[in-house]
Amino acid sequence: MRIILADPNQKSLWALKTLLDEEPGMEVVGDAEHARQLQTIAETCSADLVLLDKKLPGAEIGALITDLHILVPRPVVVVMSSDTEDGRFMLKAGADAFLSKGERPDWLLTVLRQYAQRMQNSDVTGSE
After folding, report:
1. 75: domain range?
2. Which residues contact 68 (CB under 8 A, 6 or more apart)?
3. What pLDDT sits at residue 102?
4. Measured between alpha carbons, how far is 56 from 32 in angstroms, rounded to an integer?
């Protein structure tokens, strides 16, 4: 699964990259600290999934999610936030999933593995 990371915090990006680099079948194909960077990377990398911090500067989160969803192929957009109350709003804004940054890293991996499995099954069957 090809993943783009988007977080304004360099330490968070490093931690996520480190975690995902050790996970079989997951490849970080780009990272961004700003919405414009994310859009440029997403348009050129054909990622399967975008892991996006809610506070990414440069665009309103709902508009950014919409822009990501019109890409072909369409990536899954998972939004993260340290505020658990953001979950319902992010899903309403079009995110495919929401993760609290307060969760343990193994929960993030569990969610990403589930998406990877769905994508693999979709490739095998030829449908979603």
Report:
1. 2-125
2. 38, 39, 42, 50, 52, 74, 75, 77
3. 86
4. 9
